[in-house]
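Students often ask why inverse folding is considered easier than folding. One informal answer: many sequences map to the same fold, so there is more than one right answer. In these notes we will look at a single instance of the problem. The structure comes first.
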């Protein structure tokens, strides 16, 4: 069975909701899913997963949230060759660098050899209907890519 690990950082609950939507969508495709808050796991836990997902909000303009900085640094020390990854997150278009942390994690995964499974999904604040559809599609594409990998 395909195993997915979702690690998230959420301040207001929006990103946790995004992670839960992705988890539910993955489960509907017969994927075993584990969802953890970023301070409760190590990046090395991704080594036990087929699909690796980070969900994070962007703090202020472009800063990694304090609680996910260590996780991000640990991720950069891994070799995730053979793993499929995806990144989702929430942000506020009030700031000039909307959801910049999503892009930072995308680059981090690529730098450690993981295969991008789906285009990242960036959500304005809380997920609305069109975001839910995009997140469900994101999950489906990740599952399809993991079967090819």
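Output (designed amino acids):
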């Amino acid at each position: 069975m395909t195993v997915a690990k979702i690690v998230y950082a959420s301040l207001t609950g929006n990103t946790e909701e995004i992670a839960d939507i992705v988890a539910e969508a993955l489960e509907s495709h017969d994927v075993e899913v584990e969802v953890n808050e970023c301070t409760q796991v190590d990046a090395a836990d991704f080594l036990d997963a087929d699909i690796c997902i980070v969900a994070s909000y962007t703090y202020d303009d472009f800063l990694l949230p304090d609680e996910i900085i260590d996780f991000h640094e640990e991720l950069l020390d891994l070799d995730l060759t053979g793993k499929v990854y995806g990144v989702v997150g929430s942000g506020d278009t009030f700031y000039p660098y909307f959801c910049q942390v999503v892009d930072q994690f995308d680059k981090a995964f690529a730098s450690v050899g993981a295969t991008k499974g789906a285009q990242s999904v960036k959500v304005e604040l809380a997920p609305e209907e069109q975001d839910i559809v995009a997140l469900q599609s994101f999950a489906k594409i990740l599952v399809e890519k993991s079967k090819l990998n």
